[in-house]
Amino acid sequence: MSIHVDGVSKVFGTFSAVKNIHLKIPTGDFVALLGPSGSGKTTLLRLIAGLEHPNTGKILFNGVDFTNKTVKDRKVGFVFQHYALFKHMTVFDNIAFGLNVRPRKLRPSKQEIKEKVMELLQLVKLEETANRYPSQLSGGQKQRIALARALAVEPEVLLLDEPFGALDAKVRQELRQWLREIHQKLKITTIFVTHDQEEALEMADTVVVMNQGKIEQIGSPREVYEQPKNAFVYSFLGRVNEFHSQPIVNGSYTNQNNTVAYIRPNEVGLSKSNSEKGIAAKVTHIHTIGAAVRIQLIRLDTNEFFEAEMTAEQYKKLGAVENGEILFADFKNIVYFEGNEGSIVPFDKVSKIKTASGS
Ligand SMILES: Nc1ncnc2c1ncn2[C@@H]1O[C@H](COP(=O)(O)OP(=O)(O)OP(=O)(O)O)[C@@H](O)[C@H]1O
Fold first, then answer.
1. What does the pLDDT look like over 117-161, one tens digit per residue?
2. Pocket test for ligand 1, best of 9, 33, 41, 161 (most atoms within 8 A of CB)
3. ipTM for this model
4. pTM of the predicted model as reported, rounded to 2 decimal places
5. Domain spans of the chain, in order of start
6. CA-CA distance, 299 to 282, in Å (whole number)?
7. How far, in Å, is the centroid of ligand 1 from the Cα of 96?
8. NCBIfam families, from UniProt (predicted)?
9. Which of 10, 16, 42 to probe ligand 1 with, by most ligand atoms within 8 A of CB?
10. 3-236: what CATH class?
């Protein structure tokens, strides 16, 4: 089922949680709503579900206006962060619930329900848990059962609100893969809310980046990461260093028109010898995270902190580094934006100046 959110706004009291959102989701798409806490992701999801009613705008399913239809009329399945399984029911009965509560005329036979539940248990790879109670499942298993339960009523849209938010890193990773595979099989239009950029970039076909109730950018994971529309998207989608003071880079560009320079830590080159382009900086902290080494430094010219990230191999090449040592940084891929929220400024539009050293 395709979804069209057409100019939708939602106000709580005097607070605008969602502001004039336009979003078209084609059938079968896997969409991540990504943004910081309070950006309106859950509210938008609830508006699509019919759990909230918009103040303005329309919501269309397959081109038909569903704005005034109830949750029941919309063929949506939900999974929330906190597994809302019924504690007093077995896994089997939890999954069967949506079918068992149908009016007699629409209810499948006992045998049909059994087959459906077993088929879903197979899909979520938890056949052996049919007779257990939710308290006898791990967090990851509960979320898989919650998904099976949502799928039992054959929804045409699947809505997931931070479904893996409460799970540990390893289980999250496994479930991301697993949910992707399930989507590949069933191809149900799926929208999931997350504040985790890695999760959004890894799983979704389309990423919708939200901030303060508005959409900042819609695109494939690659598009939003490699061609961010503005400073917010750039800085939300990965670690960044931010420079406000002058000179920004390589001693020859200045910070006029409120330009902010950004660079990702893995695009900072470090060297022990002073090259022509190098910016002198003092090492303040070194730490290893898995296969990566992060070095924190402070620029001697502007006193701004920044971070460089490299592979263990690159670090070895650089040679042993100590706190307090002076290194020379090469900012390889600087991006300029107008202020902290503004759009990208092309490199040739950043004002060029002569520096004190005359370079
Ligand atoms: N029922 C409500 N009444 C009043 N304010 C609300 C209500 N629901 C949400 N809000 C406000 O709307 C804003 C957006 O909330 P929403 O839950 O959509 O954000 P979110 O991006 O999903 O954040 P999080 O990741 O923290 O869940 C927040 O400031 C929140 O306090």
1. 999 999 888 999 999 999 999 888 898 899 899 899 889 999 999
2. 41
3. 0.93
4. 0.84
5. 3-236, 241-349
6. 7
7. 32
8. 3a0106s01
9. 42
10. alpha beta
